[in-house]
Amino acid sequence: MSEQEPERRELAEPDTPERAEHPTGGDYAPSVAARLALFQRAGGILTPLLTAVVAFFVGGLVVLVTTGKNPLRTYEAIFNGSGLNWLFPWVRGEERFLAGLNLQQTLLLTTALILTGLAVAFAFRCGLFNIGGQGQYLAGAIVAVWVGGALSGLPRVAHVVLAIVIGALAGAVLAGIAGLLKATVGAHEVITTIMLNWIVVWIGTYAFGLGGPLQNETLAVPISEDVAETAKLPVFWGDPLLQGLHVGLFVALAALVAFWIVLNRTTLGYEVRAVGFNPEAARYGGINVPRNYFLAMAISGLFAGLAGALDILGWQFRLSVSDVQVSALGFIGIAVALLGRNTAIGVGLSALLFGALLNGTSTRNLDPEVFPPELASNLTLIIQGLVVLFVGADVLVLYLWQLRRRLRGRSAVPPRAEAAT
Amino acid sequence: MKKFLLPWLTMAFAVTALVAVSGGAAKTEATAAPASAEQGAFSMAIVTDIGGLNDRGFNQLANQGRLRAQRELKIQTRVFISNSPQDYVPNLSAAARGGHDLVIAVGFLMVDAVNTVARSFPNTKFAMVDGAIEGLKDKPTNVRGLLFKEQEAGYLVGYLAGLQVKRRPVGGNQKVGAVGGIKIPPVDRFIAGYRAGARKANRRVQVLISYSQSFTDTAKCKEAALNQISNGASVIFQVAGGCGLGALSAAKDRRVFGIGVDADQGYLGQHVLTSALKKVDVAVFLTTKAAKAQGARFRGGFNAILGVKTGGVGLGKVSRRAHPADVAATRAQQRLIAAGKVAIPQRVP
């Protein structure tokens, strides 16, 4: 593998991101890959920031119109509700205690969103659109319930690690199916991952439903048994009884680092990105494209499955048929990856943003006087929708900008001079 | 190229933000304290399940009960909405920490969360709609279960349905159907009562039962209902919450009767024969009233079971297309049940 690597690098040179990043001159016709690379880097950190700001701005207008209240006060309440005011040293006493509780919940959400976001982002970097994050998340969760509930004789560390690993692998296997289908027969991953989502939902519905193999034995309700004490992740901040913050956060942060290292510092990541920029050129360069499709999907699924397993072992401890059917963290992961521009740091930050939004708009934090409880969760959805919308729209803005440039270049200004700006 | 675009965009936002901040800062200080309960005065909170406040079912009814308690008992109340299972524990503990004397959890899925939170807040009283105290693993004594005799409501609507198909057999068939969501005890009790009631009214009636495996997906229930209608059922009883609205829409499309559940769904039109009411609002109100009157003597550790007699379940608005004699006969059954003279099974065999 490593011996062949330099050769491959040379062959794939024309399409490497380093080159595609610098479109040279007016006569340059950008390929899909070059455009992708441009959008990837366009505006650096500024574009996603602007996207979020515009979304919040329009969201604020919505608040103003629907409630007639000052949107800034609402946003302030959401910010405090997310617990991020804990970071301010001047917040003291009771207020600080409550902020801590809120921040724990925000970070619990962030943990799962980082991983479901990475699941989408990794596949994106290989040119694949993984909509199956939800199914992979559930597969990890279901398997974690099973492993965490069975095998109760194991020592604690072994049990936790085993449940996490098998849960993550379940996600990888599920996504791997979609990757394999893409690699072998070219079945589009959007279709297959969506269909696999439903397969998992109905497996879960069967497994936890009355009379199902994982339904609890004591009560006639469609909920699984609790996972064993030995399989629960330790809580490092807050009350373990009242859903404190578990150590899974560090696993998620480590996953961010791993994501960056794998993509940017390994042969695998190099190949994945090359395929993502242009599969034809990658194939020409000697890269095994089907193999990369499969691996990229499987690794995506690994992240999402990990999210499911950590949620179960960290705070949820059990699953019900209803949880399986209404869970949506995997889908929010798509928005997280989009806003995060499919980069490690971007996904981390946007997961924190979405976690803070989801938790900050919950009715336990929003004073009913500030914002009517009926509207609270809808505000999150509005802002989420706006973010996704503007992520798409800024690509449009960039496109128009380029178009204008090209038109100008054709008429008066010499292409060389234009390119210099 | 971005050099042109970004500065003025950023500036525009900075300016709008500044204007908004200067306008907002003055107001912020005026209302600082959140609406937490005053010391001493009785207050209660409800914690809803997933599905939103306007679900035309459980959450909405519970909220109506809360608003009625606020109005009639002149107390402070607050609602905490759960958007995901992750909200259960924080919502319940925020309600308890906020100084509410009584916290009512809505929905059987919250039993485990109530269990842990009730242990951590032993001085707060808890009640759970549809949650049986047998499900509490640590047996906290400050929790009361609020259960319903769904079989009585099911019996009444089944009785009316049985009479209806006897009067108007469709294509020689005397069949009625029930579409359940997920087979959990309350759904089971509704359907068991429905079957018993229909058979009591009409010995020749056949009762079709199926489950959609969902409480939310209207398409699933519509499909199940259409199946039953194709098999000759001319009254469809939905026992599937939001999903069941699909069953009622199937009934409307195929011009047969539907029967609503939990809330009064007669607002959907005259094709809704009646509704099997499960008055969560009454349960919430009565529990709040008792907790306010009894104070520290309000006990937990048992299930309060509401039936026809206590007004906890009953018959909803009856369609104008139903025959008055049938309706009168059903009301007579209601009086018999209230007097405790009808034995109704609680399980579908």
Task: Kindly summarize this structure in a few lines.
By secondary structure, chain A is an all-alpha fold.
Shape of chain A: globular
CATH topology of the largest domain in chain B: Rossmann fold
Task: Report the CATH C-level class of the largest domain in chain B.
Answer: Alpha Beta
- Number of DSSP strands of chain A? 2
Which structural class best describes the helix and strand composition of chain A? mainly alpha
Count of alpha and pi helical runs of chain B = 10
Largest beta-sheet characterization of chain A: 2 strands, antiparallel
Q: State the end-to-end distance of chain A.
A: 42 Å
Rg over CA atoms of chain A: 23 Å
| Main interface by residue count | A-B, 61 and 58 residues
What does this structure look like?
The complex is a heterodimer of chains A (421) and B (349). Chain A has 421 residues and is mainly alpha-helical. Chain A has 18 helices and two strands. In chain A, helix 6 crosses helix 16 (344-360). Chain B folds into two domains: 43-148 and 281-306, 3-Layer(aba) Sandwich (Rossmann fold), CATH 3.40.50; 150-278 and 313-338, Rossmann fold. In chain B, 44% of the residues lie in helices and 19% in strands. Chain B is built from ten helices and twelve strands. Chain B has helices at residues 2-30, 58-73, 88-97, 111-120, 150-167, 185-201, 218-230, 244-253, 280-294, 324-338, and strands at 43-47, 76-80, 102-106, 125-129, 143-148, 175-180, 206-211, 233-239, 257-262, 272-278, 303-306, 313-315. Chain B is elongated, with a radius of gyration of 24 Å. Classes of the chains: A mainly alpha (421), B alpha/beta (349).
What layout of secondary structure does this protein have?
The complex is a heterodimer of chains A (421) and B (349).
Chain A: H1 5-12, H2 17-20, H3 32-41, H4 46-67, H5 71-81, H6 93-125, H7 133-149, H8 156-185, H9 189-208, E1 235-237, E2 245-246, H10 248-265, H11 267-277, H12 279-284, H13 289-316, H14 321-326, H15 329-339, H16 344-360, H17 373-411, H18 415-420
Antiparallel strand pairs in A: 1-2
Helix pairs in contact in A: 4-5, 4-17, 5-16, 6-10, 6-13, 6-15, 6-16, 7-8, 7-9, 7-13, 7-15, 8-9, 8-13, 10-11, 10-16, 11-13, 15-16, 15-17
Chain B: H1 2-30, E1 43-47, H2 58-73, E2 76-80, H3 88-97, E3 102-106, H4 111-120, E4 125-129, E5 143-148, H5 150-167, E6 175-180, H6 185-201, E7 206-211, H7 218-230, E8 233-239, H8 244-253, E9 257-262, E10 272-278, H9 280-294, E11 303-306, E12 313-315, H10 324-338
Parallel strand pairs in B: 1-2, 1-3, 3-4, 4-5, 5-11, 6-7, 6-8, 8-9, 9-10
Antiparallel strand pairs in B: 10-12
